[in-house]
C-alpha cells in the first residue's frame, strides 16, 4: 500500500482528516481522523536501500465507542486483507473515545 492509497481509505464524507495534529476548527468535530508516521524501516537488497516501510498510527476520535467510521474503516481494511489490531481508550477529560492502530506503507524516503 502507498501513502496515497492509505489516505483514500481514511477519507470519509464530513469527517476531518489530518496528517499530524488536527486543525483548530476541527478539534471538536463529532468524529475526526488523524494519522502520522512514527517508524521507518529501510528495506535493503544487495547492500542497498531500495524502499522504506513507513509505519503510521491512525487515530479515530469520536463521541461514541464503535462509531460507524471505525467500523467502516475496519471493513475497508478487511477487504484489502489488512487486519491491524485496533485499540480503544476513553479520554476522561474530553469524554471522547480514541480508537487507534498502526499500519505499514511503502514509501521512497
Mean pLDDT: 92
Give the helix tally.
2
Which residues sit in consecutive blocks of at least 5 with pLDDT less than 50? none
Number of E strands:
5
Largest sheet, in brief, is: 5 strands, mixed
Strand content: over 45%
Distance between the termini: 15 Å
Can you give the helix content as a percent range? Answer: 10-25%
Question: How are helices and strands ordered from N to C?
Answer: HEEEHEE
Shape: elongated
Derived structural class: alpha+beta
Strands, helices and their partners?
Layout: H1 3-10, E1 17-19, E2 31-45, E3 48-62, H2 68-79, E4 87-91, E5 96-107
Parallel strand pairs: 1-2
Antiparallel strand pairs: 2-3, 3-5, 4-5
Can you walk through the features of this model?
The protein has helices at residues 3-10, 68-79; strands spanning 17-19, 31-45, 48-62, 87-91, 96-107. The mean pLDDT is 92. Strands 1-2-3-5-4 form a 5-stranded mixed sheet. It has 109 residues and is an alpha+beta fold. The protein contains 2 helices and 5 strands, in the order H-E-E-E-H-E-E. 18% of the residues lie in helices and 46% in strands.
Amino acid at each position: 500500500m502507498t501513502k496515497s492509497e492509505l489516505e483514500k481509505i481514511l477519507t470519509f464524507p464530513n469527517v476531518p482528516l489530518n496528517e499530524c495534529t488536527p486543525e483548530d476548527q476541527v478539534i471538536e468535530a463529532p468524529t475526526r481522523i488523524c494519522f502520522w508516521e512514527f517508524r521507518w524501516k529501510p528495506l535493503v537488497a544487495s547492500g542497498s536501500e531500495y524502499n522504506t516501510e513507513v509505519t503510521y498510527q491512525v487515530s479515530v476520535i469520536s463521541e461514541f465507542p464503535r462509531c460507524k467510521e471505525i467500523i467502516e474503516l475496519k471493513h475497508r481494511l478487511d477487504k484489502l486483507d489488512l487486519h491491524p489490531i485496533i485499540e480503544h481508550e476513553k479520554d476522561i477529560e474530553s469524554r471522547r473515545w480514541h480508537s487507534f492502530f498502526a499500519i505499514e506503507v511503502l514509501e521512497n524516503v
